[in-house]
Amino acid sequence: MPSLKDLKNRITSVKNTRKITKAMQMVAAAKLRRAQEAAESARPFAERMNAVMSGLAASVGGSDSAPRLLAGTGSDQTHLLVVMTGERGLCGGFNANIAKLARARANELLAQGKTVKILTVGKKGRDAMRRDLGQYFVAHVDLSEIKKIGYVDAQKIARDLLDRFEAAEFDVATIFFSRFESVISQVPSAKQIIPAQFEEADAAGASAFYDYEPSEEAILADLLPRGVATAIFAALLENNASFNGAQMSAMDNATRNAGDMIDKLTIEFNRSRQAVITNELIEIISGAEAL
Amino acid sequence: MADTMQFDLVSPERKLASVQAREVRIPGAEGDLTAMPGHSALITTLRPGILTVVGPEGTAEYAVTGGFAEISAEGVSVLAERGVPKAELTAAIHAEMMAEAKKVVDVAHPSVADAAVKMLSDMEALGAHINA
């Protein structure tokens, strides 16, 4: 049985832990709000961009002169998986879930005899996948120094991707990130960005009646690289919101668990103190009786 | 015909403006153009320049680069990779834009080098609008 002092120490230590997790939860909540706002204000741009591009893609897509970013290289041998995770842990299954999805996809592609390359964004995903897929890593993007994700960060990643695409390093690029549904639900998702894919629904907003200046092809060629950056930017923001949401609920749980533990330890502490007092009393009384 | 139309200026990070406008002067890739209500539907890419919005509440000017404008009879929406209210366009921001444009010129693929050089000169011209 632990001594009174031990129990007291443990209670203090758990109390400190609770303070930390509570603080982390509040920080995550504040950051989440900002991340959500950022994600929401980025939405109009991405939606418009997609609508216009899918309209253009629908009218240009069939022709032979379609840009390679849209039509692809004509092969799907080499796949580049861009795995976006957080830079930090303490966020429940957030990083693990994304890594799991990416790993499943990588294994599936490898089983089909395709070549897989992996580009990681965020330290945690890199660590999680290093052991079994480390040999396929081609590059890593470190965002840990960046406090607020800006469009320029997405542009940097996009430029890197486009350079690699130009250099024929891969045929298909897919990004893995976590879609933010709510604080308690973040869905790991995959999205193919090169060659660009558009949902049918978007294309319905027919672009046929628009005039284009310069030509449709030229506009599309101009927009597609920007579209890649936009998609990456949107994914980064979603990811950021998801990360903070996951961290908030993880820390909320941790705080609650710490509270339960403190209650349990306090009861144990009181019981053993009671036992000590009773013991002392018995000793005094029996000593007095013996006289 | 309505004498105003909806004008939206959106950057990847946020919505910069969403107002009623009587006319919008757009620095299009193939020349400046002015859109007024009832303009025929047009999509054009942007070159770096000053975008002017004339509305019932007055005139607003923005420095924009990279992106496109979508014009329809009911409104204009401009998607710019970078958009700054002209009043906030400082030498520092311009220098940053210039540096970016120069980088593009340096690494430009031969097929688009002309376009990149043109963009750089447009960018330089934009510098003339900096508030002293």
UniProtKB/TrEMBL annotation, chain A:
Membrane topology: Peripheral membrane protein
Pfam families registered for this protein in UniProt: ATP-synt (PF00231)
Transmembrane annotation, as ranges: none
InterPro entries cross-referenced by the UniProt entry: ATP_synth_F1_ATPase_gsu, ATP_synth_F1_gsu, ATP_synth_F1_gsu_CS
Keywords: ATP synthesis, Cell membrane, CF(1), Hydrogen ion transport, Ion transport, Membrane, Transport
Location in the cell: Cell membrane; Membrane
Oligomer status and interactors: F-type ATPases have 2 components, CF(1) - the catalytic core - and CF(0) - the membrane proton channel. CF(1) has five subunits: alpha(3), beta(3), gamma(1), delta(1), epsilon(1). CF(0) has three main subunits: a, b and c.
UniProt similarity note: Belongs to the ATPase gamma chain family.
Cited function: Produces ATP from ADP in the presence of a proton gradient across the membrane. The gamma chain is believed to be important in regulating ATPase activity and the flow of protons through the CF(0) complex.
Name under which the protein is recorded: ATP synthase gamma chain
Organism: Rhodobacter flavimaris
TrEMBL record, chain B:
Source organism superkingdom: Bacteria
Residue span, ATP synthase F1 complex delta/epsilon subunit N-terminal domain: 5-82
Topology in membrane: Peripheral membrane protein
Keywords (A to Z) from UniProt: ATP synthesis, Cell membrane, CF(1), Hydrogen ion transport, Ion transport, Membrane, Transport
Keyword tRNA processing: no
Main location: membrane
Pfam families: ATP-synt_DE_N
Keyword Transport: yes
InterPro entries recorded: ATP_synth_F1_dsu/esu (IPR001469), ATP_synth_F1_dsu/esu_N (IPR020546), ATPsynth_dsu/esu_N (IPR036771)
Family: Belongs to the ATPase epsilon chain family.
Function: Produces ATP from ADP in the presence of a proton gradient across the membrane.
NCBIfam families on file: ATP_synt_epsi, PRK13443.1
Protein name: ATP synthase epsilon chain
Organism whose genome encodes this protein: Rhodobacter flavimaris
Gene that specifies this protein: atpC
